[in-house]
Amino acid sequence: MAMKTNEVWIYIEQNNGKVADVSLELLGKGSELSRKLKVKTGAVIIGDAVRGLTGKLIKYGADRVYPVEALALKNYTAIPYAHAMVTLVREFEPQIVLYGATTTGRDIAPRIASELRVGLTADCTNLQIGDYTKPSSKEGDILYKDILYQIRPAFGGNIIATIVSPDHRPQMATVREGVMKMNSEDEARKGEIVETKIDLPARLFVTEVARRVQMEKAVDLKSAAVIVSGGMGVGSKENFKLIHDLAHVLSAQVGGSRAAVDAGFIGHDHQVGQTGTTVRPKLYIAVGISGQIQHMAGMKESNRIIAINSDPDAPIFQIAHYGIVGDLNDIVPRFIDVYKSLMK
Hints:
Layout: E1 8-12, E2 14-15, E3 18-19, H1 21-37, E4 41-47, H2 54-59, E5 64-69, H3 78-92, E6 96-100, H4 103-116, E7 120-124, E8 126-134, E9 142-154, E10 159-163, E11 171-175, E12 192-193, E13 226-230, H5 241-249, E14 253-256, H6 258-262, E15 283-287, H7 293-296, E16 304-309, E17 322-325, H8 328-343
Parallel strand pairs: 1-4, 1-6, 4-5, 5-12, 6-11, 7-11, 13-14, 13-15, 15-16, 16-17
Antiparallel strand pairs: 2-3, 8-9, 9-10
Helix pairs in contact: 3-4, 5-8
């Protein structure tokens, strides 16, 4: 018989004993949703030797941790991991399950949704709890209380869609990295470890990981304190040297808009925005970026935003704390010279 917890669950992604940042971010958001719903926050972690990570998950917001531990689960493969999640969801019946919108999250979440026959919203940038009235001509309007608003950009980022799954549980969504604020680690938090026992028949292991090859990203935008980004307004790949020069003197990372990446001005690892990396630096300098909604969705939470653009009506100025209208070929070298003179 199932134990209906009604909890908000986070699928914890881990790699060689390191918890993914997006999972810790989701524990923060999950805690917020749980408080609204007056339920507990659960964290499911699957793998080999993962019990040592349960304390960390509690410190970041989990009230209950459900470890699924087996040597056969050392490396992520979709079928056994999805089987473990489906088994736990059916046993404990959470009302919400959240996943990071990573390659792993995008692989496992649809499999689970299909098996459970529930909805799934991909690449959410916000989550809220609210009510929903479903029109019905036969029975009259139906009011659903305290359901999950799954909010994401749609139609190329030109609109923001709010999606609900009122009729089926759990409500499920994948969430983009960097869009939720991570809780600070709280050493005083207490939580519960829930023992789990899941049958893992051999038929689930139809693939075997022979060798793993991992490549580190050339740029780490997520943890950068200062980012200088260029857009199509920079004009050319050669002119992008101005962006690199300014970033160099500021000890900053270099970013770019999707348009700049598509034009070949800079590589995809540097892309900031809806289809790139979501960032929250202390300072974000946008050079030659008009400010399409896709880009602003990925950097609008920056502490300070400076925009440099020749178009005084560019949308980027609507969210910038400081705006400079003019030719970047004139302004950026002045920035560099002034900063160098101050550092002498």
